[in-house]
Write a sequence for this structure.
């Protein structure tokens, strides 16, 4: 689980939208890209995101 303070400052690198944590992924609420979380570290790279 990602710290709430970290989630509050994270933004989608693609569209700059707000993100939330869902099912071990960071999900953008605007464009819907899903970024993986590995070893409790969000991998916020566009080329690693799922659609």
């Amino acid at each position: 689980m990602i710290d709430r303070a970290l989630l509050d400052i994270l933004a989608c690198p693609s569209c700059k939208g707000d993100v939330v944590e869902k099912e071990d992924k960071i999900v953008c609420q605007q464009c819907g890209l899903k970024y993986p979380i590995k070893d409790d570290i969000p991998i916020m790279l566009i080329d690693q995101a799922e659609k």
The mean pLDDT is 95. The chain has one domain: 4-48. Residues 15 and 31 are 7 Å apart (CA to CA).
